[in-house]
Amino acid sequence: MDRRAFLSRFTGGRGGRVRPPYTHPGTDFSACLGCAGPCVDACANETGVLLRDAKGVPLLDFARAGCTFCAACLEACPEGVLAAGREPLARVWIEEAACMAHQGVVCVACKQACPEDAVVFEGMLYPRINEACTGCGLCVSACPVEAVAWSG
User: Fold this and answer.
1) Are 30 and 40 within 8 A, CB to CB?
2) Domain count within the chain
3) What is the largest CA-CA distance in the chain?
4) Where are the transmembrane segments (predicted)?
5) pTM surpassing 0.90?
6) What is the pLDDT of residues 56-75, one digit of tens each?
7) The domain that contains 102 carries what CATH number?
8) Residue 8, Cα to own-chain centre: how many angstroms?
9) Is the separation of the CB atoms in 151 and 104 below 8 Å?
10) Which of 61, 87, 113 is the last residue of a domain?
């Protein structure tokens, strides 16, 4: 058993459904239902964070990886569902009770994973996520105890 699997047994699951990049809250995903999903295939060659639900609607799974905004899914979308432009994907926060750094253990996995430097620490402990966060989810998959939570 790897370290993440072992440590995550002690915390509850976090998260929720997160819409793909290059969409907005009102995006109509009905065209995705009959699509073969080339956006998901394109993402599989990058990070593999984009999946399809049982109906065929694309969604992000931050437990697998984060989004690098590489635009591979955007370029592969034949239906025009994904459109240029971007807003934060998800609201992300740290569950203090589950976070090792909030319990006095030095851990900087979330900070190291963040390309925007949105995870800040008070000294070596007590991380928080600031307004620079894009909601990419890279910190979520990096956390060994699943202490980074999100909502889409």
Assistant:
1) no
2) 2
3) 51
4) none
5) no
6) 999 999 888 899 999 999 99
7) 3.30.70.20
8) 17
9) no
10) 87
